[in-house]
UniProtKB/TrEMBL annotation:
Protein name: Amino acid transporter transmembrane domain-containing protein
Segments passing through the bilayer: 72-92, 119-142, 148-168, 180-201, 229-250, 262-284, 304-325, 346-368, 374-397, 409-430
Domain Amino acid transporter transmembrane, residue spans: 42-437
InterPro entries: AA_transpt_TM
Annotated compartments: Membrane
Any Pfam family: Aa_trans
Leader peptide range in chain numbering: none
Superkingdom of origin organism: Eukaryota
One Gene Ontology term, aspect cellular component: membrane
Organism expressing this protein natively: Penicillium canariense
Keyword Transmembrane carried by entry: yes
Molecular function (Gene Ontology), one example: L-amino acid transmembrane transporter activity
Amino acid sequence: MSGEKKEDLATVASPNGEIIDDSHDAVFGEITEDGPNYRAVGWKGTAVLMMKTQIGLGVLSIPVAFDALGLVPGVICLCAIGGITTWSDYIIGVFKLRHREVYGIDDVGELLMGRPGRILLGTAFCLWWVFVAGSGMLGISIGLNAVSAHATCTAVYVAVAAIVAFLFGSIQTLGRISWLAWIGLFCILTSILIVTVAVGIQDRPSAAPEDAIWVPDYKIVNNSSFTDAISAISTLVFAYAGTPAFFSIASEMRDPTHYNKALILCQSVVTCFYLAIGIVIYYFCGSYVSSPALGSAGPVVKKVSYGFALPGLIVSTLLFVHITGKYIFIRMLHGSRHLTANTVKHWVFWLGCTFGVTIVAYIIASAIPVFSDLVSLVGALLGTPMCFQPMGGMWLYDNWSKGKSHRTLKWNLMVCWCVFIIIAGFFLMIGGTYGSIVSIINSYNKSGGSAAWSCADNS
């Protein structure tokens, strides 16, 4: 291995002080000049990849969630979910350093529950990210429709989104994708800031009636039904549901000991940004806030904001395709030299995985009626249990034995916290699933659902 290659691979210490040579990785095996360097993401690149998995589709629905809950309960719920998921993300970093062989949440499932746990969490991981990738393709089609004033059939735009996601999602390593994440993050933040400023200086939101004096009708506390409230909370969870991808991102870090630094930067920026746009847009738009929020300030601002948002939506979608394809790819070639060597078999399997994920996501985005509500259902059913319950189990797995010999106050409090996290996760999963099912039924009864491969304008 050349000196240049070795500089890309850090030698770090494990928690017990053991020096680890990262030219051999517990997940990827031998990293040589003959193939891609999977361990090439610095801490800043890690932070931006984390932020891009979080800030994407979910952020556009936060003002609508505040409308359902009310301003104060919305802020409290957002901060609570942000705090819990930050702890969950922290546990991922700790667990990864202690168990270097862990690549995905399915590895955690096997440690906690044996082979059934691996199958259960591995399947949930794939389904979750494939559905989110499909949602991303639909989001890109909305943006293209908004910018072009519906210049062509929406089904064409979804197909274009799928092609772009496959091409860029097939870049081999997250280290090579991180520069795209910087662009995507800048664009999505800019687009939302444009809308946030626009709603503050305009007379009224675009959906408000024109024949009356406009007074913001925001509510400090809203008396919403259980179904509406739990669906809104599920939306807030969705905004932080990049958590399961953090396993993959941590595995490709050049120096995993810098994980916490990247995590603090990510969650601080994400939470402050969510609070700012949620409060400002809901304050000025009230019950007339649009979903997605980019349409709240009228047609001109909508075009401009979606013009900036498109690169961000594209980067989010290609990340979802890449992470899901990489997970399947590693599971298929784990332990084989083809995993880290640029052989024919390597490229056939890699492109086959990303192409397969893209096709399934495209079919989901195009063919399933009542799609947005279905994504909410999958988010509650699959997204929530990957952000809450496993992390409580991970802490207990590493620390339960310590309580047998010496139970401290800290140990007792942490056990109670982990039990709370697990119970809260199941509550949100069951409640959110119920709320989503009710919403699907109501939407279908009202409109009959959306047509498969529809040409209708969805912006």
